[in-house]
């Protein structure tokens, strides 16, 4: 145990501490003394508790051999699906999404948890392919269907942000899982063409699209998220309020920011949820471009260290897990920040390790704990899964 503790990657630990420190100070800036309409005062202390629990989860999972999770991947997947179904019937609604389970004084968001569940399950699924090329019918199609099921369940809960994260995780793992290049190219073209077609159709047939989303399928909240992104001139004042004020706040930060606890927009409450989803807006307004760039640099260092660990890992399962976690974090970072600068639709996704939220920080820290487990145990034997022959080796497995 002591020997493994000495081998814990110090760069990852330091970056996580820095990100969480930024989180505490940022949350304090926009919540201290706030009691209306919500009692926000003290959220920074609550977040500190979540961070401490997150580090406990991080070190516990780091010292557990990750191959244990791979072994029981299908059972973990079944349990995760059960929670997603359960929340549809007895889940609590928050911010328009019915995605929370109340467990005494604790609140759990199964959709957040399932991101890690999906990574573990797909890694287990791909490992059993023993490095063979993924064919469409026996490889890509089953993975797609197994991802589509939780995607639909979470979409029903009005949680578009987490639902899309499953697709990103699947794409990352299918790529590293040795998909045929022509299949990957065809899939990429289909995604680009379909996405562009849907976006252009929404813009040019806006009235019909609004009627379909609002009246036919009863998803009016999607209109409020798509209009400010695709047709800002047609968006209602309520729909564009969040992103419009966020852009103003980010722009007003300039190079060096307006100063800690002196952000005009965030301190006046003109940007909603600056302690949670919109916490990047607080950083950008009060610390400017330099503060925002520093946060992005920390994320870059974190992802870089994960890729280095995957390069050093001698087992396929460890590489699968790290790529899955990296895809999950990259999606959250790009979606969260992109939404507030107009590049992405607003989906309510949190900024990893910084936004307020117990489930989010615990899941992300658990994911990093599994990454660290790969670092600590990645050189040990994997007796249950035979090594593939040289002819079936995956050229994209990132091996050294």
UniProtKB/TrEMBL annotation:
One cellular component term from this protein's GO annotations in UniProt: plasma membrane
Entry GO MF terms: lipid-linked peptidoglycan transporter activity
Keywords on record: Cell shape, Membrane, Transmembrane, Transmembrane helix
Protein name: Rod shape-determining protein RodA
Keyword Repressor carried by entry: no
Organism: Paenibacillus agri
Positions of transmembrane segments: 12-30, 50-68, 75-91, 111-127, 139-157, 163-179, 186-205, 287-308, 320-341, 353-374
BP term (GO), one: cell division
Subcellular location: Membrane
Pfam families linked: FTSW_RODA_SPOVE
Primary residence: membrane
Membrane topology: Multi-pass membrane protein
């Amino acid at each position: 145990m002591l020997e493994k503790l000495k081998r814990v990657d110090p760069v990852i630990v330091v970056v996580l501490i820095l990100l969480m420190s930024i989180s505490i100070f940022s949350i304090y800036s926009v919540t201290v003394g706030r009691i209306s309409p919500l009692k926000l005062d003290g959220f920074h202390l609550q977040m500190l508790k979540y961070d401490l629990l997150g580090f406990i989860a991080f070190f516990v999972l780091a010292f557990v051999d990750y191959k244990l999770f791979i072994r029981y991947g299908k059972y973990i997947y079944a349990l995760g699906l059960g929670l997603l179904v359960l929340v549809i019937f007895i889940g609590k609604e928050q911010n328009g999404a019915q995605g929370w389970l109340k467990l005494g004084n604790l609140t759990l968001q199964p959709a957040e948890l399932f991101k890690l569940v999906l990574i573990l399950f797909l890694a287990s699924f791909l490992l059993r392919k023993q490095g063979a090329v993924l064919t469409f019918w026996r490889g890509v199609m089953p993975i797609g269907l197994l991802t589509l099921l939780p995607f639909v369940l979470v979409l029903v809960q009005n949680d578009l942000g987490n639902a899309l994260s499953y697709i990103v995780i699947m794409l990352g793992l299918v790529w590293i899982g040795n998909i045929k290049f022509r299949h990957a190219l065809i899939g990429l073209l289909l995604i680009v063409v379909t996405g562009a077609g849907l976006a252009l159709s929404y813009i040019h047939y806006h009235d019909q699209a609004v009627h379909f989303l609002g009246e036919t399928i009863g998803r009016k909240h999607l209109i409020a998220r798509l209009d400010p992104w695709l047709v800002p001139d047609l968006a209602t004042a309520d729909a564009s309020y969040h992103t419009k004020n966020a852009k103003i706040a980010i722009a007003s930060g300039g190079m060096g920011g307006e100063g800690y606890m002196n952000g005009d927009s965030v301190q006046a409450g003109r940007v909603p949820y600056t302690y949670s989803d919109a916490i990047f807006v607080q950083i950008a307004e009060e610390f400017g471009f330099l503060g925002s760039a520093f946060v992005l640099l920390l994320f870059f260092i974190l992802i870089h260290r994960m890729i280095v660990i995957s390069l050093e890992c001698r087992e396929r399962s460890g590489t699968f897990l790290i790529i899955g976690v990296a895809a999950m974090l990259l999606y959250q970072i790009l979606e969260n920040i992109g939404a507030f600068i107009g590049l992405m639709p607003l989906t309510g996704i949190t900024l990893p390790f910084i936004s307020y939220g117990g489930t989010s920080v615990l899941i992300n820290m658990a994911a990093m704990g599994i990454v660290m487990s790969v670092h600590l145990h990645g050189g040990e034997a994997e007796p249950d899964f035979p090594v593939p022959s040289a002819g079936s080796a995956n050229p994209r497995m990132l091996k050294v």
